[in-house]
Batch of 2 targets.
Target 1
Amino acid sequence: MEFLQQARFHDVEPYVESFALFLKDATTSPYVKSMVFELLQEKKVDKSFLVKKVGMEEQVNPSDTSLLGDGAFIKELIEKLVCRWEHSNPSLLEQLQAIVQQHLFLMYPFQFPITDTELWSEAYSKWLSQMYGEFWRDNPDINQQELIEAIKFIEKIEQAQQNYLL
């Protein structure tokens, strides 16, 4: 971690091949992979890397990837959570925002498999509410099978997060 912080001030070209090996190793920390990928973006490395983490795998070029949190999807998801919980349960909202941000960082450069922010707002809200033992009434406008899959995805990301606590 210290090395990655220091690398921001130096040429990373001598380390690109080592970073490539690290990014494609499915057993290494997804947190550190996100940090490595951000460093490669910051240094404008224009090369495709095979990235494997939390059950996802893809060839990704740091120079062609939007910065973490820059996408419309995350802004819209956070906005939906704020509208839903800001007045009725601000503590839950704070936790939801923190969890979503942690999950985004853990998955980065990958994104959520479905881009329906209403679905993800419902899934995160239901998942966290049920963790507190609260009764949850499903939104009938949300596809229930997609909701089940989204919650399974959240649980998978949460499990990966627990496995790699820094």
Target 2
Amino acid sequence: MRDYLIIGVVLASLPIGFFRPFYGLLVYAWISYMYPHMLAWSFAQTFPVAKLSALAVMTGFIVSPNGNLAAMAQKQNVAMLLLWCTFSISTVFAIYPEDAWNKWQDASKLILMSVLASLLLRNRRQIRQFMLGFLGIERRLVWSRYRRTADCVRPTAERHGRK
């Protein structure tokens, strides 16, 4: 049941990436940082949720009339694409090509989504939304983990404010 719920939420978020690529990027970041499909027990663990989300964002960016390709000429994006070309060439001549192509797919997804993020994050508000979403998730995880370990270590009197 949990598998169906997680896959349903992820599949329901795919049209968001197609029609609003920025919000699809936020969904992709959520999937990439939190790994919600790993909370399931069977087929959802191997379901390619991040790849589907990335494809929805890429397709939405290409189809949308707001696609701004002028940022592709920035030196950082050019450097990332040259790095991707270097990875591609070295993968072609790899000693173990099967393993190399698997790693190439992961590296390609990372580099291409980084370039796409630099194209989609256009103003300060969007960058703030992107970073606050990540930092909020990270802080929630770190502080909840800290509280659990701190509660286990501190004596009971200290937890209740008595010394």
